[in-house]
Amino acid sequence: MAIEDDVLVIGGGLAGASAALGAARGGASVRLVTHKENTLRNASGLIDVLGYHGSDEPIAEPFEAIPDLPDEHPYRKVGVDAVREALALFDEVVGELYEGGHTERNALSPTYGGRIKPTSRYPTSAAAGLASKEGDTLLVGFETVTAFDAPLAAERLDPSVPFEVRGVTIAFPGDLRSDARITRLARALDADELTERGRRVGTREALAERVAEHLGDAERVGFPAVLGDEEHHEVRASLGGELGVPVFEVPMGPPSLPGMRLEDGLYEALDEEGVRVESGNPVVGYTEEGGRITAVSVDRGRREIPYHADQFVLATGGLVGKGIDSSREGVFEPVFGCHVPQPAERYEWFHDEAFDDQPYARFGVAVDGGLRPLDPEGRPEFSNLRAAGAVLGGYDMAREKSGSGVSLSTGLVAGRRASEDIQ
Amino acid sequence: MSDADHTDEFEPVQVFPTTEMDLRPGADDCYKCSTCDSECPVAAVDDDFPGPKFQGPEQWRLKRKDDAEIDDSVMSCSNCMRCDSACPSGVPLSQMHNTARGSYVENGMDKLSREYIRNRILSNYGTLAWFGSKVPRLTNFLMSSSVVQTVNERVMGITSEREFPEFAQQTFREWWEERGGNATSKKRASEAREQTGRGGAEVESDEKRVAYFHGCYSNYNTPEVGKAMVRVFESFGYEVMVPPQKCSGTPMFANGMLPDARRAAETNVAELSAAIEDGADIIASCTSCSLSLRQEYPELFDLDGIEDVSAHTYEALEYLRIHEDLSGALEESEIDSRKFAYHAPCHARNQGLAGQAIELLDGIEGAEAEDVGDSCSGISGTYGWKEEKYDTSMKIGAEMFHHMEDAEPDAGMTECPTCAMQMEHGTGYEIRHPLEVMEEALVD
Fold first, then answer.
1. Model ipTM value
2. N or C: which end of chain A has fewer CB within 10 A?
3. What pTM was computed for the model?
4. Among the residues of A244-290, which ranges form H helices?
């Protein structure tokens, strides 16, 4: 019984971090175990609560819309106040990294594909670009960052916003390889490297010079989210200073710098709260006694190590994070084998059109009011196991734009309840 | 990963010709998210290095064609293996790099070239150290002479920027023999068990036995780490054995010297298997050694007992944490008040051990530990010793140096001997091994 804690959280994403913070603030000794790098670095960094429900019209007031959600939705399990508290905890933890906490209304953020997305909290780096603020906009793409086609994104945005949007593609300054990673670009801006031979000029100034040629009447300039890593506030400020207009980042797909910055902020908070974090090995099994989990086993190559705790939180993610898995026989939860409700007939898992309301998107464990996973008869699988985040069923994060809010709120509630139940 | 085991069923993969080690399924798992590239410490500072995604799955696909040769950039990979833990899709990147590097050295490298000879010497550090340790004073004198250093750099391509590690006056094995070997350890362990308190109450038999894989560095250069490991384990009632052994192979993998590594592995697997039969688990104090025995051996070689060795190998503190109430024992302990700046070696991260030393030190009265961040130290064993890689190595290490200086510690701390070298080289701080601090806290 060497490795033993009050609460063991399995999973290191938004839900796991929120659960660990909730449990630690409840006075528990907490360990968080996560396999590999978490999926935050694949996330845009936007914190959505509820963007859409039942129609194509974006929701302006997400908290007001929550009571209309179906009973099995995770938000209905935790209640709207818990969602507010989770967002407040998030605001406190990330501090200056994020904005949006001043209002309960959704903001509208442009996406790198040229759409507008309703979101609740947005990185400070994206603040100047919100579509809910007016101002003619220039989007700047880089030849080598192929995921963001600025002219195309501008063309798609222009008709849907009440201001003008133009797009231009330029070469990133300096002598970088043509397939340089976005982290390399960010580092060049962080360090303000001297880039051009024969002329002593830093990356930031050189970039601003190239953009200035295209600036015209634009009142703000957006870039793909590569504007610095550790020094991102400073990079944005100096580019804005050179150009004379505010500069913003358009959130991007993986690997995502806003996601990595968020990860850093959350893990710093976990450290301050005294949460012990272990990364690198998956949890693969458990032992139980009379309906209680006594330990989980962590796979270290060719053997399994027991991690004991009094309470457990399952926050391993959904189909993408591999907290929910599937085979030709069915959809299952791999760590504890918790029941995942699903039609027996495989052809009922999906509808034919890709963008239909897909049943499989809502697959996940069903839980009671205390977030305990339920067996097929509706009884808790284990008395001391709770689930949080994308491993939960009953909601479709992609359609609803509700992923972060569900993770934060169910994580907080699961962590709090776990710390209250310590025997 | 051989497909030969499933001949009764049709598998689409069988349509493709297979090589001896078929990594195709792993290569197919790569969906090009580039997370590995963004985590690679070499790619972060060397614009000419194409990164792990190219070195792993892409190069592996390319080399399946007869006319495609392995790109020489694979020699710029430092084998830190961070890409493994970055990959969300379970692609066996470091295994691909190791096999690609082995094949590049075998087929693409001139065996009379300065680079090949230099790499061979560096990766066979154990042999070099064996000679050197016979006359430690003379070797230390010679290796610190600027004439020898200049010759090393000009002729061999070994950087003169670094201070060659000193050889101890007495190796760990010499100390072990002088102390009375296994018999003495058995006696001390049983004495500790008879005393009430630590370890004593929980032991039913005298089957508490570990085999110490000391590796080259703690044998020749830092025997105090090996001694600390022995004393700490004995104080918990463990009888320590020290089986005959060769280099773990880590520097050989990193230099593509797979036949050398295989020869060493044959000895190690045979000797360690025998120790396992005698009831021992295997303990290493160097995290690269434990990673090698645990992960790289079964990935690269097919030897009798290799899976068993892998399953029984542990890092020293990891073992105590799993089997003993180590944090309980540390709660009652104390050391002279000091602050340590701790760096987790990449190979400790890969085993999920990155937070363990800090967690344990936090429980010792007098000890203060600060993690200096998740950057790579940059030396990566023999990598930072190469004249042409020295600058890259120092650029990678810069972040760690800054964090160490900000922390203003009394000493640095890490498990990896070459990370320790780099920490000292970059900051001037004295560097300790967590086991030495444990010894101070736990052993009278």
1. 0.87
2. C
3. 0.91
4. 257-272
